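User: Hey, my collaborator sent me this sequence without any context and asked if I could get a structure. I don't really work with proteins. Can you help?
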Amino acid sequence: MASAASSSSTAPGMRRIKKFPSSSVLPNNTTTDTPSPALSTNVSNTSSVARLSATSSRNNPGALLDPTQNQPILRSQSSRIRSQSQSQLDVPSTVTRAHSAKYHRKGISTAGLSTIRPITIETLLSRPPTSLPEGLKTLKNLVLTQGVPADNEGNSAVRVYIWSILLGVTPMKTKDYVTLVRRGASSSYSKIRNDTFRTLATDPLFRRKVSEASLIRLLNAFQWKMRDKGLEAQYVQGMNVIAAPFLYAAKSEVEAFSLFAAFIERECPAYVRPTMEGVHRGLKLVDQCLEIVDPKLFEHLQSKFLTAELYAFPSVLTLCACTPPLPEVLKLWDFLIAYGAHLNILCVVAQLLLMRDELLAAQSPMKLLRQFPPLESKSIINVAVSLVRRIPDNVFDALVVHARDA
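Assistant: No problem. I've predicted the 3D structure and written it out in structure-token form, which is a compact way to encode the shape of the chain:
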């Protein structure tokens, strides 16, 4: 671990419902032959994590992971450690035999004080740190190493708060959202209605918890919000699927709207422009990154005339939200929201590497790529993190900005 940490220091730094009644729905009147070593790599790879953390800190200055520790120590805790170390100097260097037992008993009785309880997401949220950068650094590391606690259906008591913290979202007043809804149908309303009914249509968890009416209101209100800001406000395919995890995870429709708006504006504005230039840049980067990390698999797909434009468009456009199951999508999004949506490109490449043997053996790989296998978020994240250090700086820089650049 020490050597890995040493090498990482010389490597380039790595970057990042109050519910409304259904009647509120708007009216219609308006490499080598061997498998990639990435597949066996754990997220504890320090050089990858250090570079990853440096990227995410662009939006949160100082929010860097400590590459030498899995659980960075908060400032208050480090002060406690120093004070305990100093207290050892207060013990007399020479004591009489009569008092030795006394000091021994004292050492036993205070030994427990020097033990620092492991930090968890729940304890971090319940006892906010004194330093915001340190707290963000620790939160991101916990998301990566421990994961957000949730049940089998993806329900979590803390996920929405973690997303709000990482996206810098402050609570939105319900009346402000209601005002947007009451403005009626936007110019994109008919397009929205054409898409919402088929959003995650085969996912019983989503259909049971999220109504089509709430999805319509959220997307239509977002169009008004963008127009008020003077930005290009035109609904594009895929926005409905991006909105779905927010509506599923949030405790209210207003909360989901504020998270969705912040995510689109901050992480992937180029994905929702009329030309979708961010998505097309991302697809080219999928091809580039795959060629770098696994030339043999890349050449095999190229020999079948298969580029990312043909098989990875939905996964790039929706940040993998189109691939079930939904609870695994939420876990993957915990990682993307913590370290940057641009890393979804490496998550797509990771999925290709995880099905490498099947793709190489297939005479018609498109049959396998037409529908990606069910998401396994832990494996995908492990591989994606390991790929970070293998991507050249110029390609990684393009990766970081591809979803945001004009």
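In plain terms: The chain has three domains: 2-16+34-75+117-152, 174-266, 277-401. You can pass these tokens on to your collaborator as they are.
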